């Protein structure tokens, strides 16, 4: 489980995801994205958040695990 690995192990794990991934399916969420527990703690993975928000940027990321954090978010592209 990603919750028991140190940050370096997590970085190595998530870096194996191909950069050109359009659809990503993971068991758990990235940190701070639909990841609030019943005790209002963030359960998501910070290293996964870094990878999907800066490196991979998939068009669709599906995940579960956190029952209370159900729903969907749409991230619009930014044009500068």
TrEMBL record:
SUPFAM superfamilies attached to this UniProt entry: Metallo-dependent phosphatases
Transmembrane portions of the chain: none
Protein name per its UniProtKB record: Metallophosphoesterase domain containing 1
Native organism: Rotaria magnacalcarata
């Amino acid at each position: 489980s990603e919750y028991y690995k140190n940050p370096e192990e997590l970085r190595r794990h998530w870096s194996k995801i191909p950069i050109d991934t359009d659809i990503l399916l993971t068991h758990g969420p990235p940190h701070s994205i639909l990841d609030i527990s019943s005790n209002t703690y963030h359960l998501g993975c910070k290293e996964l958040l870094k990878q999907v928000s800066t490196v991979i940027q998939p068009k669709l990321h599906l995940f579960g695990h956190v029952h209370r954090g159900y729903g969907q978010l749409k991230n619009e592209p930014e044009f500068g």
